[in-house]
Structures are given as structure tokens and as C-alpha cells.
Amino acid sequence: MNEEKLWNDIKEMVEKRINDRDTMMETKAQKKRFWLIKVMNNFIRVKREDSRLPYEDIPKTDFIAIWEDLNKAEYASTGYMQSDLHDGQSRHSAVSFALVGMLPYIKWEKVGRAWKLFLKD
After folding, report:
1. Any residues with CB less than 8 A from the CB of 49 and at least 6 apart, and which?
2. Per-residue pLDDT tens for 7-19?
């Protein structure tokens, strides 16, 4: 499976939720709500709870980076944390992780105090 497959799966899932008017979601660790607004070719637009911004665009590159890292040997056994995405420099990581964690071939696991993503066997 390549990174475009992951991105296409995310887009399809988000489009379905928007069409079904099931747009509210929640981040895993922070339990902050966000609403899905729109899917574009290179980003997903969301409205975050308590944000001063009218919307935020979650870039396609976040999802590609997560997928590439999840397939690296170093994360296969230890899992992938939000702080691993772009070395912790992504302000969108909580939303990106919430979306990726909903895919059927990804699982969440609590390791110590941190939630991590793993590929399902």
C-alpha cells in the first residue's frame, strides 16, 4: 500500500462523514472536538473547538508522513506518537492522528501515558 492509498482512504472517509452530516470528531489524547468542513486535493479543512481561527487546513503531507513512518521498522514494535510527526513541529498532529486512527488497518494503543498508532497485523 502506498501513501496515496492512505490519503485516498482518508479523503473517502471524510467525504462520507460530511455527506452523512456526521462531521463532529474528537482528538484521542486531548479529547478536543473538531468538525470536518471540506476535502480538497491537498488538505482537509476542519474547525477546531475553542480555536480563534475560522478553520484550519490539515495538509496531505501529514498523512503521507504518518504512513511512511508507520512502515519503518523503528515504529513497527514501538508505535508512532503525535510528537514523532514532523519531530513534534506540526500543530495539526492531533487532528491528523484522529483521522488516521479511524482507518480499519490502523489501531490505537496506550503505551505508558501516550497513545500510539500501530499498523494492524
Report:
1. 32, 33, 34
2. 999 999 999 999 9
